[in-house]
What we know:
4-stranded mixed β-sheet; 7-stranded parallel β-sheet; single chain; alpha/beta; 43% helix; globular; binds magnesium ion
Amino acid sequence: xxxxxxxxxxxxxxxxxxxxxxxxxxxxxxxxxxxxxxxxxxxxxxxxxxxxxxxxxxxxxxxxxxxxxxxxxxxxxxxxxxxxxxxxxxxxxxxxxxxxxxxxxxxxxxxxxxxxxxxxxxxxxxxxxxxxxxxxxxxxxxxxxxxxxxxxxxxxxxxxxxxxxxxxxxxxxxxxxxxxxxxxxxxxxxxxxxxxxxxxxxxxxxxxxxxxxxxxxxxxxxxxxxxxxxxxxxxxxxxxxxxxxxxxxxxxxxxxxxxxxxxxxxxxxxxxxxxxxxxxxxxxxxxxxxxxxxxxxxxxxxxxxxxxxxxxxxxxxxxxxxxxxxxxxxxxxxxxxxxxxxxxxxxxxxxxxxxxxxxxxxxxxxxxxxxxxxxxxxxxxxx
Length: 383
Ligand code: MG
């Protein structure tokens, strides 16, 4: 029986992790859960899975035990004082499904105790990936990618030698606005950008898919997780989302991972590691799919991808700043305060301002994050 803690259990990824776990009643025991906003769902989950600990912040103030009165009879379920404390509690696997840089210190905590971290929280990998890999090696823990693309690459690399890897190729669906004339993008509303053609995900990542900034973050994520340079990571538009990413080898052959687009495969793979999981997702019928298409991304349509790749080449400071700025910009776009096209325009300014920082120590990440946020609010004139 593996024990599992899920940081961010009420979000899209967190709920899918619980769905996979519920299919293995004799294999997994949930020992920790946390949410950021969705108190009612967290309460439901705590009642159902009866973890040892949970964490829920309430506007910066800890939730009062009385909110969880209903649970008192079930006993033992205790509220930790922080997300980091929850991450420090014993568990065979800690799943980080938190959105944004808020997941940084909890990821550090897990790896500092030599634990296994299954991570979907891409902003933390983008900002602190080099440090996370160093902690993984130093303390003998394990980082298991939950992002579908990186899980695919992780699996394609099994049994391969790193020196024979020529490049990593990330596939991208193109997002909700892939067929909209470029001229109309300035008028796009949040609801349009939230209609992803293939994947059902949280709001931040769905908007990032529409701008393709998500794929830019994933380029940086791949560099950090697999310790390769920016010029070894490529992006190809693949509308069907059947091939989840590929690895090109020194003999010019490629390996890719194909499946129905369902992120529970990556979750099941990580939880079952090092063995293969069960039959959780639907089988793939190549005869029904018929055609798989590939094309180069158009940077006029997706300037955010180009900016993220430039940041990847510029260094860690630029990546941290761009990731922080994007969190602000997506939130303001969702509130209707800025235009869709303002996201790329503002990111370009942030990149110019922060591109020269270079490598960043762990303890300095949040201060660059904060400076980038302030600068972003200044540029867009909100707050
Ligand atoms: Mg992905």
